[in-house]
Structures are given as C-alpha cells and as structure tokens.
Amino acid sequence: ASSRPELLAELEQFGLRIMNAPVDDPEVLERILMPYLQKPGVITGALFMVSGVIPLIEEFLKPLAMWFLIPRKITPREGFALGLITGAVFALVESLGNLVNPLADMWSVVIIGRMGTALLHSFTSALVGWGIASAWSERKVLRLLLAYLVAVSTHAVWNTFALLLGFGPMVSPSAASVAAGLYSTLGTIAPFVLVFLALVMLFLMYWLSRRLGNGSDVQDADIEP
User: Fold this and answer.
1) Tens digit of pLDDT for each residue in 41-82?
2) What is the full DSSP assignment across 67-110?
C-alpha cells in the first residue's frame, strides 16, 4: 500500500467510512462493504488473517500465564483445567465488546454465536494447557506440539466458517470466478459445519475431562502420541 498512493488513500477512506458509520444501522455497513465483498481476493486476504495468523497467535498467548506455574510441576490434569479456565476467561473478555450494545433483533444470534466461541476457546486452551503440563512434567514435547496443532487447526476451521457465514451470502456466485462460487457455497453450509464442530468439541472436552478425572492423566496408550 505504501508503494501505491492511490491504494493507501482508498484504504484510509474506507477506514474512515467504517469508523463513522452508525453502529445501529447494519445496512449502511453492508453498503460500504459490498463493493469489497464482491472481490474474492478481499475475502481470501481476510481468511488468511482470521483463519491463519490469528489462531497461531491466540493459541500461543491464551495459556501464557500457565508458564508461571511451571515451577509447581503441574500435572497434565491440572494443565487441562487451567487451560480451560484461561480459555473461558479469554472468551468472556472477547465477548464483552459484542454484548455491550447489540442490535435488538440480533441479540439471540450474538448470544448463540458467543456461546460457540466460548466453547472453542475453552476447548483449544484446555488442549494446549494439557500439552504444556505434559511437556514439562513428563517430557512429552510431542504431545505439546500435537495439542497446539490440533488447537490451531480447530480454531482455523471455526474462524473460516464463521467468517463465511457472515460474508458468504453477500458474495454473488459467478461462473467467471471459482473462488466466489466456492465462498458462496461454503457460506451456505457454514451453520451446519459450526454446529457439528461445536458438538465434536463438547464431546471431546467431556471425554478428556472424564479420563483425567479418573486419574489416568491421559498418559495411557489410548491417546498418547
């Protein structure tokens, strides 16, 4: 953008229009965004950030406070619980901005969406917390790497379909653009994918907590990498 003054000026103008748009009129925001959403490259760039970069950063930072507890030699069971707590707190803080002043007719949608996001952050942080404790107390570094990769991948899939759920219907399928047709189709099935993923995360979190609660610390052959 810095090498193309006209593009930089367009981005600055776009940012000002978004900042000055009334928050209680989604149609204004839609009119501002629509010209950009018709360009598959814009959505591709957004997906790269939201589904690629952000999960890598968030899953690394969310359980960061756990490293200060390493001298206590926390067990994998404790790591799972602490990770779950840090993920839930992160989700709560992240949701505050969405719940402060939602539109009256969007309240239920926002609540349901944030419930799914809270489940996502709790599940992925619990996995990483379990991996951190396992790597430190049992020298199972591979478990930490696998837990982190699973957490990032799950987060990336969730973010992808959450983004396409909102933007996919705004993209006009075009025979001349394979990406536009793909994004439109994925936006249509996004609700079902998100519900399925939420159920899978809920089941896995329950299953892992049961195993850890039984005192096995998930170090037996069933799920040990």
Assistant:
1) 777 888 888 899 999 999 999 988 888 887 788 889 999 999
2) GGGGGG---HHHHHHHHHHHHHHHHHHHHHHHHSS--GGGHHHH
